[in-house]
Each structure stands twice: as structure tokens, then as C-alpha cells.
User: Which sequence fits this backbone?
């Protein structure tokens, strides 16, 4: 988890507010599987937090700011079913902010991570969640632990967002993506 940009409403704008009444419960997927890099706490991905105990967070009442203010996408999207909670679905979905992205579509994106031992592809949960997550002007990446793949926007749209002038059939969709990304100063200039 990298702290979100200074605008506290950016996550709400892109994926929605925290869903009232939806709680982490026994899920501690973020405590193990995510990189945490904030001023008050850091840990590498794939390493359980040193405060994680069999009953959850041992310092829950005084946990770091990043842990009190960060929420996975399941906590923010009411349209995702209870079965999509990370410990139930085997998928950890987060909004990511990358300082030096290799592509503008990585700067601000939704990342769907398949957790070790997950059967989310075989069970159809991965496809169902991707269908729901690919409905906004936010890039969606999927990682199965070995490979990271862009799932949204479609490859032909993505290619034109980051480079050439789009064909007329894609012009409106590419323009909408470029306008969205202008707010993050990651949108490439359109070819003249």
C-alpha cells in the first residue's frame, strides 16, 4: 500500500466510498500480500505484518495511519458480493498509485491479485469480478502471481491512449480515457 495522492477523495471518486456496514471480518489478506510503504510503517509484499496474530491485528486500536485509512476495493464497491471478500474469493483487489509507471495505464489503476492457493480462475470468481471492475475509466490489471496483464481498456484502445491518433471508431473512447488521465498528469499528448 502506497499512500494515495494528497487528494483524500481520489479513491472515492474512482472506485466509490467505503460501503457502510461492510467490514474486514476475519480477512487479513492485505496484512500479508501487499507492499506497505508509508511514513509510519513499511513491509514487503508476501510477508505477514509483524503485528498480525492468530486473532488478527494485535495493535488494531493503535495501528498505523495507512492501515486505518486504506480499504480494498471489496470494501468500496457495494456491487461486489460478500463472496468477493479477499479471504473468500482468493483475489485481493486494490487501487494502486505508481510514482514511476512503465506505462501511463499503471499510474493509477485497479490491480486484481490472485492469492496463493486461489481457485478463482477455475471457480469463475476471477471472470465475474473482472466483469464488474471493468466498467469505469480506470485501468484494470490482473496478476496470477507470475504475470501481470492489462484487462481494461481493450488492447486497441490502450494502444491509442498511449500513442497514436485513434481511428474514428475509437476516437470518443480514447478521448474519454485521455481526459481522465489528464487529471493525473499521465495522459500522453494526442498526435498532431
Assistant:
Amino acid at each position: 500500500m502506497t499512500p494515495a495522492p494528497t487528494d483524500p477523495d481520489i479513491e472515492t471518486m474512482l472506485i466509490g466510498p467505503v460501503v457502510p456496514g461492510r467490514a474486514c471480518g476475519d480477512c487479513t489478506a492485505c496484512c500479508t500480500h501487499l507492499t506497505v510503504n508509508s511514513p509510519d510503517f513499511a513491509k514487503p509484499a508476501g510477508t505477514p505484518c509483524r503485528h498480525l496474530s492468530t486473532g488478527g491485528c494485535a495493535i488494531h486500536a493503535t495501528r498505523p495511519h495507512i492501515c486505518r485509512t486504506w480499504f480494498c476495493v471489496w470494501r468500496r464497491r457495494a456491487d461486489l458480493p460478500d463472496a468477493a471478500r479477499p479471504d473468500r474469493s482468493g483475489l485481493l483487489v486494490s487501487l494502486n498509485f505508481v510514482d514511476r509507471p512503465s506505462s501511463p495505464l499503471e499510474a493509477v489503476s485497479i490491480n486484481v491479485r490472485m492469492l496463493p492457493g486461489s481457485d478463482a480462475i477455475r471457480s469463475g470468481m476471477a471472470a465475474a469480478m473482472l466483469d464488474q471492475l471493468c466498467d469505469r475509466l480506470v485501468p484494470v490489471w490482473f496478476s496470477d502471481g507470475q504475470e501481470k496483464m492489462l484487462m481494461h481498456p481493450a488492447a486497441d484502445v490502450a494502444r491509442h491512449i498511449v500513442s497514436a491518433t485513434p481511428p474514428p471508431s475509437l476516437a470518443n473512447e480514447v478521448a474519454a480515457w485521455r481526459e481522465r488521465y489528464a487529471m493525473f498528469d499521465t495522459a500522453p499528448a494526442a498526435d498532431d
